[in-house]
Amino acid sequence: MHASAVLISDLHLTPSMPRTAERFFEFLEKEARTHEALIILGDLFEFWVGDDAKARSPFHQEVATKLKAVSQSGTKIYFMHGNRDFLLGEQYAQKSQMEFLRDPQVMNIANQDWLLTHGDVLCTADSSYQQFRKVVRSQFVQKLFLMLPTLLRIKIASSLRSNSTAKYQRAQKFTPEVIQVKGDVTLNATAALVAMSGCQQMIHGHTHRPGYHQESLGGQSWQRWVLSDWDFDHPETVLPKGNALSITTEGIRSLDLVRS
Ligand SMILES: [Mn+2]
After folding, report:
1. How far is the CA of 47 from the centre of ligand 1 (A)?
2. How many angstroms separate the CA atoms of 6 and 243, rounded?
3. Do the beta carbons of residue 60 and residue 49 sit within 8 Å?
4. 120: CA distance to ligand 1 center in Å?
5. Distance from Cα 103 to the centre of ligand 1, integer Å
6. pTM score
7. What is the distance in A from the centroid of ligand 1 to the CA of 60?
8. Residues 6 or more apart from 195 whose CB is under 8 A from it?
9. Which residues of the chain have a pLDDT value below 50?
10. CB distance 247 to 39 below 8 Å
């Protein structure tokens, strides 16, 4: 379907992280434009409470304008929802000229099939998250949520976020081994998705554990590439990080966006 593509995920863009946004804008000017397609595998934004709420935000307008410029330069943009920006809707997608991808989706790039997913659906060791996901991703609940006043939506979203951050920090301190397991994909869920899709090359983000894995289970083997999350704003506590996967007829390779 495309001769080349570059994939990114988990940028968690927000006005309070300007250096990360700056690196993203640079990426759009440079790395993105040398590929036929740009594929965003979710969590482009830190949170999203509805297109209407973002309509007045200069930051989100700026992101939309820059995405649109890339699309107009000839690089097609695809967007898959993540667990934080799953409410990003038609209106914003149109404005930024992005086409939605279902999760999961098999896409042909450089004459090979690639299985694309955000990744949260594979984290089946965290059963309470999977339950939460089922509820918030239901059409009915989403419709109700979007009917609430914007300020209330922001309040609900940020309290959900701070609750989960607090829970995570507590667990990280007292039961790090549990977090290690719960925050990662499971072999079973991955194998099931590979079997269902019939595609043995998988790319996802979400876990913030960039890497490459060769795995197998029950006579099936596959390869799995994991994208990095991005953070260029906290050099005193977090080493700057961010990568992209570039697929061309020459193969797949990781682009380190910190050094380049
Ligand atoms: Mn995520």
Report:
1. 10
2. 10
3. no
4. 6
5. 12
6. 0.93
7. 19
8. 220
9. none
10. no
Question: How many A from CA of 46 to the centre of ligand 1?
Answer: 9
What interhelical angle do 139-147 and 150-174 show, nearest 10? 120
**If you measure from the C-alpha of residue 229 to the centroid of ligand 1, how many angstroms do you get, rounded to a whole number?**
9
Helices (H) and strands (E) in the chain, counts: 9, 11
Amino acid at 131: Q
Structural domains of the chain ordered from first start: 5-256 (3.60.21.10)
Residue with tokens 């410029």: 69
Expressed in angstroms and rounded, the spacing between residue 42 Cα and the centre of ligand 1 is 7
Answer yes or no: are the C-beta atoms of 115 and 193 closer than 8 Å: yes
Ligand 1: distance of its center to the CA of 219 in Å? 29
Digit-coded pLDDT (tens) for 63-109: 999 999 999 999 999 999 999 999 999 999 999 999 999 999 999 99
The span from the CA of 136 to the CA of 87, in Å, is 10
